Amino acid sequence: MKQYTLLIGGERVATEHHADIRNPSTGEVVGQMPLATEKDLDRAVAAANAAFKLWSLVPDAERAQACRDVAEKIAEHSEEIAHLLTLEQGKPLNGLGSRFELGGALAWTRHTAELSLPVEVLQDNNEGRVELHRKPIGVTGSITPWNWPVMIACWHMIPAIRAGNTVVIKPSPLTPLSTIRLVEVINEVLPPGVVNVVTGENAIGAALSAHPGIAKMTFTGSTETGKKVMASAVATLKRLTLELGGNDAGIVLPDADPARIAEGLFWGAFINNGQTCAALKRLYVHESLYDQVCQALTDYAAKITVGDGLDEKSVLGPVQNAMQLNKVRELVEDAKARGARILIGGEPQEGPGYFYPVTLVADVDHGVRLVDEEQFGPVLPIIRYSDVDEVIQRANSSPFGLGGSVWSADPERAKHYALQLECGSVWINKHGAIQPNAPFGGVKQSGIGVEFGADGLKEFTVSQTVLS
């Protein structure tokens, strides 16, 4: 069984203790995660700080080329990393699974490599010249989740290094191996210490977010953990980018065509087995279409094959871990007890692995946990409504505000209502279709700051005004 190592200052660093990483499809051990100590973390932060002194002075064009070189390394090793990702995360190699995730990581890396933040001239006249410069912050700490570990690692690392920062990344203890391998690969083309990886349980993440040598924290994960990261930043006033939980609402207007939107609704909700922050998690359907939409979604869901991620026939894989599986089961059972109608699924599968079938739940409303809470799994509650203005208020009643969508045969009408949703991103006749040139972030308790594009790159800089 392979024992993985930390990567600090360009060198592999062995640890005294390790933890088993298991395949959620089978329960088999697929590798051992190194358990970093706080001394290891101190060493990583010191290496990143030393590298920053040189990396921050590298000309912009050279940093852009370095990011292009990183992209080529990711492309070269994409199948290897995708296979490792499937082993530890569970998602299928095929379809919208691990190969898709590696493709996304590559696309975001290539796009970010071409971004730049030129000097802005705010004034140039007989009263003087005023320039706005964007400068790197320092060492960026990154904590990534288990749902899209490789792609989100690139979302955190690539803009940081593109802007001239260095990185210490700590992946989820459930899916650390693909991130370790990713960092090893990109260290083949980056100077030592620019990107370092430490792994371990949650305590090492807490130490990272509180570390005085970290100038900025980037975190993707639950709102409750995000609050802890924010609290730990207070002592040193760290910069923060937090992409947190969501309970995204989709609203089907009465003029929509159920047959045409069924596929988009399904994948908006069930991409990555529903384990996506910006997945569709509450679907409101006008009463005139309710039964038709329920039937169209059920017909589509019945065609989806759920199985071991290494099986090329699998379209969806298992829930990633036992805790999340239990949460999904608990929410569905609560909905059943409150009179919900199960259209398809609703019972855990027998045998090894954390498998739960695609589940559609009808005849639920606010006050049922499945509607009020984020399920983060392969379950979609479908809620009937009669008044569009009133349903906008209900959609906005959540403390979260990551994404939302409106579905209609009339895009302009849909846009009218979409603009009323309280969320950082809103889609029309699709859901969750993020792209590297469009800023992405949440409002309310779904986060602080944005990722992607020039606005996301600015999050990894501080501004300096030069007056002459």
Keywords:
468 residues; Aldehyde Dehydrogenase, Chain A, domain 1; Aldehyde Dehydrogenase, Chain A, domain 2; seven-stranded mixed beta sheet; six-stranded mixed beta sheet; 15 helices; globular; oxidoreductase; Ald_DH/histidinol_DH; Acyl-CoA reductase-like NAD-dependent aldehyde dehydrogenase; Ald_DH_N; oxidoreductase activity, acting on the aldehyde or oxo group of donors, NAD or NADP as acceptor
Which strands sit side by side, in order, in the main sheet? 14-15-16-13-12-18-19
Taking all residues together, what is the mean pLDDT? 97
- Helix- and strand-based class? alpha/beta
Number of strands: 22
Q: Which geometry do the CA atoms define?
A: globular
Task: Walk me through what this model shows.
The protein has 468 residues and is α/β, with parallel strands linked by helices. It has two domains: 6-244 and 446-467, Aldehyde Dehydrogenase, Chain A, domain 1, CATH 3.40.605; 248-435, Aldehyde Dehydrogenase, Chain A, domain 2, CATH 3.40.309. It contains 15 helices and 22 strands. The strands form six sheets. Strands 14-15-16-13-12-18-19 form a seven-stranded mixed beta sheet, with helices on both faces. A six-stranded mixed beta sheet has the order 9-8-7-10-11-21, sandwiched between helices. Strands 5-6-22 form a three-stranded antiparallel beta sheet, with no helix packed on it. β15 (359-362), α12 (369-372) and β16 form a beta-alpha-beta unit. It starts with 5 loop residues before the first strand and ends with a strand. The model has no long low-confidence stretch (mean pLDDT 97).
